[in-house]
Automatic annotation (TrEMBL):
<feature type="domain" description="Pyrrolo-quinoline quinone repeat">
    <location>
        <begin position="24"/>
        <end position="113"/>
    </location>
</feature>
<dbReference type="Pfam" id="PF13360">
    <property type="entry name" value="PQQ_2"/>
</dbReference>
<feature type="signal peptide">
    <location>
        <begin position="1"/>
        <end position="19"/>
    </location>
</feature>
<dbReference type="InterPro" id="IPR011047">
    <property type="entry name" value="Quinoprotein_ADH-like_sf"/>
</dbReference>
<dbReference type="InterPro" id="IPR015943">
    <property type="entry name" value="WD40/YVTN_repeat-like_dom_sf"/>
</dbReference>
<dbReference type="InterPro" id="IPR018391">
    <property type="entry name" value="PQQ_b-propeller_rpt"/>
</dbReference>
<dbReference type="InterPro" id="IPR002372">
    <property type="entry name" value="PQQ_rpt_dom"/>
</dbReference>
<keyword id="KW-0732">Signal</keyword>
<feature type="domain" description="Pyrrolo-quinoline quinone repeat">
    <location>
        <begin position="132"/>
        <end position="234"/>
    </location>
</feature>
<protein>
    <recommendedName>
        <fullName>Pyrrolo-quinoline quinone repeat domain-containing protein</fullName>
    </recommendedName>
</protein>
Length: 239
């Protein structure tokens, strides 16, 4: 049994340099396998994705499991919620839409391989990548496929959406910009090594770091390099 411990509070205080803090366990929830995805939190609930193939809804104050939704394989990504519906991909190849209050399936859409990264909701579209080598866009109401785009390599981190443009990194050491409206590739940039964390966007600049320690800042419009920095080989950097 794998157990997670969560204290549902974020407290910001000023402490002396050598001060210590006592941490009190408020509650615990156990699942059958490991939890690798970041929990999804809202005002009253926490949604947990587990390698046991279940998505759990937990009362944030009491730690009580209110429901669990079972899939046919592991879940390694964080759920996303939009207008009372949860969207989550599974290792069974399905993207699921789930009613958040009752934990019942609204629809599912099958791909040919595992879905390991978080989906995003853009207007009426649910956009995600499958390890079958495609980006998918589904109608969020009924799960019907709106379009799909073939990838040359599988994605290596969560998708980032800014102003009609989708940014994503792939295991062949690249970051790509993709126009969601036209479904056309805009540009790509190659790093020294794979990027395994979502890029950061700020004021027209993308910041990302690869697993070799190279940090780059790119112009988000055309992918041109603004600057780069090489950290020591032993450093593992995340922007």
């Amino acid at each position: 049994m794998k157990t997670i411990y969560l204290k549902i509070a974020l407290i910001f205080i000023t402490l002396p340099l050598h001060a210590s803090i006592d941490i009190e366990q408020v509650w615990q929830v156990s699942t059958q396998e490991a939890i690798h995805a970041t929990p999804l939190l809202n005002k009253k609930h926490i949604y947990l994705s587990s390698y046991d193939g279940n998505l759990y809804r937990v009362d944030k104050k009491k730690g009580k499991v209110l429901w669990n939704f079972e899939t046919e394989n592991l879940i390694s990504s964080t759920a996303v919620i939009n207008q009372g519906t949860l969207f989550i991909g599974s290792g069974d190849g399905n993207m699921y839409a789930i009613y958040s209050k009752i934990g019942k399936e609204k629809w599912q859409h099958n791909t040919k391989d595992m879905i390991t990264r978080r989906a995003i909701v853009v207007g009426e579209q649910v956009i995600f990548a499958s390890t079958d080598g495609y980006l998918y866009a589904l109608n969020k109401q009924d799960g019907k496929q709106l379009w799909k785009h073939e990838l040359k390599s599988n994605i290596s981190a969560d998708l980032l959406y800014v102003d009609d443009t989708l940014y994503f990194t792939t295991i062949d050491h690249k970051i790509h910009a993709f126009d969601v409206k036209t479904q056309k590739s805009l540009w790509s940039y190659t790093l020294s090594e794979r990027v395994s964390t979502q890029p950061i966007y700020k004021g027209g600049t993308l910041y990302l770091a690869d697993e070799k320690g190279e940090v780059v800042a790119l112009n988000s419009k055309d992918g041109s390099e603004k600057w780069n920095f090489n950290a020591p080989p032993q450093a593992l950097l995340y922007p």
